[in-house]
């Protein structure tokens, strides 16, 4: 297990005797785990793409240290040394990552691999310097080793300084952990939840039909996929949520033991956020504890609510100035979805705050923003289990029974709610139970019953799509008693229909009546024996068919 030693702000280290200093000391000594590592190997072969006037000087600048190959997107001038670098002309297609970039040119004979044009056994390019006005890769957070600088001279100078350092063997954490068994992405050809793919700034997540796949080489640890995932199938692993919450619990205990009251947390990126907060150190409220993490995009609702349940008065997430658009949008979406959840728990929605950038931080600090929670009880509860379990425990800890506020309507897209079943239309075929990824909808075993556990439902919509009778509708809501005391309830039940031959219950009376009605005009069911076969279980139906065929052959 990797030990991640996030260091407290330099200006606050010396204050270890005060409550916040004690908390920061506990955080700095916490051991955080990861799901493993991803390795890259780069030999320093650089593919440079763009107009000759930009690309050739860049190749000359790097040529003494690295192997540069140029794909010119124009005819340009023909300097004497152009042939030394020129590989092809045109606009290639590109994919890959550090040490494994593949590029093709579309020709009259079909796509040609640029690596094969180089020859010498080259299979891929290690690095890409893209000087074109329209970049070859358009994801919001491009892969490691890809530099899209266009015509910006400052960005080019920075890239030329970084490229030589990207030769050798490199290692980064495997940021995610994926449990396909509770993934609500799809089932039986239907698509349900796509939140992780929608939230990914690196295009690292793709659909495999019923499940998804994450390319660990493209993933850069944004964490928004884990924050947006309703079931917990996609989790953050640098660190795991249980390790982060364990570290927070020890820090809060140290804070309380040192005499601190009403602690508040401010999550920030370890690099950008630490630099910004150093400048604001003297303005930070004494009870505001900075918590450095790899990426604040990973700090989602389960962490917010668990921290509040631990007795924290406020949770602040500081987003970087240059945060990718999809990551900021994911954070805002989760906040909007959970504002009514906080209100249902009789907590002000601004107990969780998103602060976007340095300027917004200054405004927020001037507003004296923290809630006065002196004497508020800190919960002592398990932090084991997955995301839904953490949310359920947090609800149980924070919920104060109030009959008027037991149920709260939530906006569409919220990961909590119930399903409504039209009992007149439902035939209890159990197609909904067959596709439910989290076992919120289940069958009654040997009885014709449809059961539902609201605490498990993630509102993915697969049950609604699977119902052949259009008998199911979704209702996003938060019914807190369902989480305080999880239990199944009956959505529909029917009298069983017993096989007319052996007496075994195998369907419902409504289902048999519906099938008989639909097949009434079919030529195969015009005689009485064939119609009676519809009222038999599968075993007796097969037996009766063989008996009828045997009698026909014997006549």
TrEMBL record:
The 4Fe-4S ferredoxin-type domain sits at: 210-239, 417-446, 448-477
Which UniProt keywords are given for this protein, alphabetically ordered? 4Fe-4S, Iron, Iron-sulfur, Metal-binding
- Phylogenetic placement of the source organism: Bacteria, Pseudomonadati, Pseudomonadota, Gammaproteobacteria, Chromatiales
User: Pfam families annotated for this entry?
Assistant: Fer4_7 (PF12838)
Q: Which organism is it from?
A: Spiribacter pallidus
Know the name of this protein?
Answer: 4Fe-4S binding protein
Determine if Iron is one of this entry's keywords: yes
């Amino acid at each position: 297990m990797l030990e991640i030693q996030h260091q407290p702000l330099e200006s606050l280290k010396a204050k270890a005797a005060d409550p916040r200093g004690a908390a920061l000391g506990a955080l700095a000594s916490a051991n955080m785990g990861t799901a493993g590592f991803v390795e890259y190997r780069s030999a320093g072969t650089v593919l440079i793409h763009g107009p000759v006037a930009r690309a050739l000087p860049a190749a000359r600048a790097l040529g003494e240290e690295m192997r540069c190959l140029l794909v010119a997107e124009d005819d340009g001038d023909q300097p004497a040394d152009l042939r030394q670098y020129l590989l092809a002309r045109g606009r290639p297609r590109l994919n890959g990552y550090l040490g494994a970039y593949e590029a093709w040119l579309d020709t009259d004979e079909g796509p040609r691999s640029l690596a094969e044009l180089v020859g010498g056994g080259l299979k891929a390019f290690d690095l890409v310097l893209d000087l074109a006005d329209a970049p070859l890769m358009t994801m919001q957070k491009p892969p490691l080793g890809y530099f899209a600088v266009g015509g910006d001279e400052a960005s080019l100078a920075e890239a030329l300084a970084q490229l030589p350092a990207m030769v050798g063997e490199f290692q980064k954490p495997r940021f995610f952990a994926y449990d396909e068994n509770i993934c609500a992405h799809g089932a039986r050809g239907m698509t349900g939840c796509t939140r992780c793919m929608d939230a990914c700034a690196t295009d690292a997540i793709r659909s495999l039909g019923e499940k998804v796949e994450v390319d660990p080489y493209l993933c850069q640890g944004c964490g928004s996929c884990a924050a947006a995932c309703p079931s917990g199938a996609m989790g953050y692993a640098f660190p795991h949520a249980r390790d982060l919450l364990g570290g927070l619990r020890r820090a809060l205990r140290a804070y309380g033991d040192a005499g601190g009251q009403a602690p508040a947390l401010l999550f920030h990126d370890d690099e950008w956020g630490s630099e910004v907060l150093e400048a604001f150190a003297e303005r930070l409220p004494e009870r505001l504890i900075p918590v450095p993490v790899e990426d604040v995009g990973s700090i989602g609702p389960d962490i917010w609510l668990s921290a509040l349940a631990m007795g924290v008065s406020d949770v602040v997430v500081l987003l970087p100035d240059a945060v990718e658009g999809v990551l900021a949008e994911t954070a805002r979406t989760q906040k909007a979805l959970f504002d009514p959840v906080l209100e249902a728990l009789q907590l002000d929605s601004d107990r969780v705050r998103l602060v976007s950038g340095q300027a917004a931080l200054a405004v927020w600090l001037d507003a004296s923003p923290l809630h006065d929670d002196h004497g508020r009880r800190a919960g002592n509860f398990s932090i084991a289990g997955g995301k839904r379990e953490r949310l359920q425990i947090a609800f149980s800890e924070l919920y104060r029974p109030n009959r008027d506020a037991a149920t709260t309507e939530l906006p569409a897209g919220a990961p909590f709610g119930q399903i409504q079943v039209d009992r007149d239309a439902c035939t209890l075929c159990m197609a909904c139970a067959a596709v439910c990824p989290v076992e919120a909808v289940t069958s009654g075993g040997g009885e014709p019953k449809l059961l539902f556990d609201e605490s498990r439902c993630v509102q993915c919509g697969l049950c609604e799509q699977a119902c052949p009778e259009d008998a199911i509708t979704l209702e996003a809501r938060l019914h807190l008693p369902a989480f305080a005391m999880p239990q199944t309830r009956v959505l529909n039940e029917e009298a069983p229909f017993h096989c007319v031959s052996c007496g075994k219950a195998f369907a419902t009376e409504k289902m048999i009546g519906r099938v008989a009605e639909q097949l009434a005009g079919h030529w195969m069911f015009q005689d009485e024996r064939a119609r009676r076969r519809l009222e038999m279980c599968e075993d007796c139906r097969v037996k009766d068919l063989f008996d009828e065929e045997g009698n026909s052959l014997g006549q």
